[in-house]
Amino acid sequence: MKMIKKNLKYQSPGINEENRYEKLHTVTFDNSQEASILIAREICDLVKSKQEKKKNCVIGFATGSSPTKVYQEIIKIHNDESLSFNNVITFNLDEYFPIEKDDNNSYHNFMKENLFDHIDIPKENINIPSGDISEKDITKFCSNYEKKIEKYGGIDIQLLGIGRTGHIGFNEPGSHFNSTTRLITLDHTTRFDASKSFNGIENVPSKAITMGIRTIFNSKRIIMMAWGIQKGLIVKKSVENNITSLIPTTYLQNHKNTTLVSR
Ligand code: F6R
C-alpha cells in the first residue's frame, strides 16, 4: 500500500466524506515531533523565500508548551542550514499583566530562552506586549502595537496554541470578533493551568495584554497547534461546533488559510 505523507497545505474543510464534520482544516499526526518539524519547515521556507525577494517576513509567535518543539526545529534549521532570520519581524501574541520582563514566568523570558537567544533576529525587530507598563499607558501601548503590525504589512504567518477554554492568544470566551490588542481578565481555568509554573494560582497574574481576535484573523496564514488528550475536547468543539464567541477558536472556521495541527 502506498503511504500518503501528511502535509500542512491548506484545503477547504468539509469537502470529502472523511472530513464531512470538519469546519476547520485539520491535520492529525501520530506525534507532535513529526508535526512540529513540518510547521518549522513551513515557517523557514517562508523566511527564505521572502529573503530571496529581499522582503521582510512578519511572524506572530506564541508561547506555552505547544510551540516548544517547533522552536527547537527552527533553531536546528538555523544551525544546520545557515538560514538567517535577519529579515524577520516578530509580534508575540500576549504577555501577563503585570509582570516584569525578567520574571521567570514572563513571555519575554520564555521567548528569549526558547528561541530568540538562539537565532539571529535583530533585537529591534522583536515585539512582545509589555507587562511592566503603567495601567494608564495600556490603551496607547495596545493601539501602537496594532499600528506597528499594520506598518509592516500584517502578519505573514501566525502560530497559535489553544487554551482549554478555547482561547487563542488570551482571548477568553466572550471575546468579540472585532477585538484588537487590549487588556483582558484571565479565566479561572487559564490561571489554574498556569499555576504550577507560578507556584500556586494566587501568584498567577489575573490579567494579560493580548492581540485581539481581529488582529489574529488578519494574519495571512495561521497554524494552530493542539497536542495530547487534555486538548481533545476543545479540539473537537473548535472543529465541529458552530461559530460562537463562547469558543473563540471557532472564529477561525471563517479564515481561509488556517490549519489546525493536532495529535
Ligand atoms: C500563549 C498563548 C496561549 C497558549 C494556550 C495553550 O502565548 O497565547 O493561548 O497558546 O494557553 O498553552 P499551552 O501550549 O501551554 O497548552
Bound molecules: fructose -6-phosphate
Share of β-strand residues: 15-25%
- Give the beta-strand count: 10
Number of domains: 1
CATH topology: Rossmann fold
Textual characterization of the structure:
By secondary structure, the chain is an alpha/beta fold. It has a single domain, classed as Rossmann fold. It has helices at residues 32-52, 68-80, 107-114, 138-151, 188-194, 213-217, 232-240, and strands at 25-28, 57-61, 88-92, 94-97, 126-127, 157-161, 182-185, 207-210, 222-226, 258-262. The strands form 2 sheets. The chain has a 7-stranded parallel sheet, sandwiched between helices. A 3-stranded antiparallel sheet has the order 4-8-7. Helix 2 links the parallel strand 2 and strand 3 (88-92). Helix 1 packs across helix 2 (68-80). The protein is globular. The relative contact order is 0.18. It binds fructose -6-phosphate. Fructose -6-phosphate is lined by residues 62-66, 93-94, 161-163, 167-170. Fructose -6-phosphate (F6R) binds at residues 62-66, 93-94, 161-163, 167-170.
Question: Notable features of this structure?
Answer:
alpha/beta; 263 residues; globular; Rossmann fold; three-stranded antiparallel sheet; 7 helices; single chain
